[in-house]
Amino acid sequence: MTSLAYTITEYTRDFARSAGGYTGDSPAMLDAFEKMRRSGIRQARAGHFERLAVIEQFKANPAMYFAAIRPNLSTEETIAEARRVIFRFRNMPTWQQESRRPQLQKAVLAQVYARYFRRFGRRLWVREAA
Fold first, then answer.
1. CB neighbours of 71 closer than 8 A, spacing ≥ 6?
2. Distance from C-alpha of 56 to C-alpha of 20, rounded to nearest angstrom
């Protein structure tokens, strides 16, 4: 029976196996995979804090949120449009996807913000108005 407490090398080996299929024991390769894993974690955290900052700005000023989702008139329309963009992107050939990646990133962010405000927006803004 294995323990749930992983050491860094076990996490690194799991990451190396899942990311690149690497099964060796080279310290240099494992160190490179560890650096990639930690870099990915740092990027994910940085992205999370960037999204939190934008949401805090939208919470403070609802008009800013509605200006950001234009030309859509509602949060539901924004989510539907983002889903259409993502669906079209996934069905494009790779050579077209490469030039449309910024459009995909913008749609994904719009979907994240719209889903947050669909769930919590009314409650937040009513509380602010009271």
1. none
2. 38
Q: Which of 64, 70, 66, 75 is nearest to 119 (CA)?
A: 75
Q: What are 39-56's pLDDT values in tens digits?
A: 988 999 999 999 999 999
Give the C-alpha separation, 36 to 16, whole Å.
Answer: 10
Contacts of 112 (CB under 8 A, 6+ apart): 51
| C-beta of residue 112 within 8 angstroms of C-beta of residue 118 | no
Q: What is the pLDDT of residues 45-89, one digit of tens each?
A: 999 999 999 999 988 888 888 888 888 778 899 999 999 999 999
DSSP 77-127: HHHHHHHHHHHHHHTS-HHHHHHHHHHHHHHHHHHHHHHHHHHHHHHHHHH
CB 75 within 8 A of CB 117: yes
